[in-house]
Amino acid sequence: MLEQPQGGPGWSPSATVVLGFSGLTASVGDHIGHFYQTHEEWQQVLIPYLKTGLEAGDKCVYLMRPNPDWRGLREALAAAHIDLATALASGQLVLDEGRATPEELREWFTSVIAETSGRFRLLRWGGDMTWSLRQTSTSERLMVWESMCNTFANPPAVFLCQYDLTQFLGSVVIDALKTHPLCIIGSAIHQNPFYEQPEVFLEALRRRHAAQQAL
Description:
By secondary structure, this protein is α/β, with parallel strands linked by helices. It has a single domain, classed as Rossmann fold, CATH 3.40.50.300. 42% of the residues lie in helices and 22% in strands. The chain contains eight helices and eleven strands. It has helices spanning 39-56, 70-79, 84-90, 102-116, 132-135, 139-148, 170-178, 198-214, and strands spanning 2-3, 16-18, 25-27, 31-36, 59-63, 93-96, 123-128, 152-153, 157-164, 182-185, 188-191. A seven-stranded mixed β-sheet has the order 6-5-7-9-4-10-11, with helices on both faces. Strands 1-8 form a two-stranded parallel ribbon. Strand 2 and strand 3 form a beta hairpin. Helix 6 packs parallel to helix 7 (170-178). The radius of gyration is 17 Å and the shape is globular.
């Protein structure tokens, strides 16, 4: 496990985090998968998630898909009464393109957590996971990062990973299920029966990679 610093005022390892949509809450450290098929489904979760976090004093980092619809996103945020320019300028909101390797993501995540400590309540880390189609050469790298998210010790953060089911192969979706302890299904969060502990998943991934290389 990787030790992480505590968050800012109001943070507690046992705190309940209001997600902002469907009346759902999470606990600090939760890693949640959201699988969607339409732009509307994506937006109905993302916009209130960011709005609630910004209003609560959280730092919000969101990894964007390739060629994002900035105008549509800005309009949706404005409709939710979010001052995007101020949130970005203050550093409370970060919209990013991601990193190329799991190691670079871990380094960046650790630095963001350090910046969050003492300044913001906690970190809302999320992403439309199609960002990885631009940055990573294989889905394996993305899944190493997803599994790595489950190894941070009591991070003052919540993770929300949104998967567009129209953009990923079924095999990738299965791996995504194996790396998320919690999943949003409909308007509820459920414990994921397909989740695998990081050491189990990463060993299976290593063996699969070795078998593919041997072909």
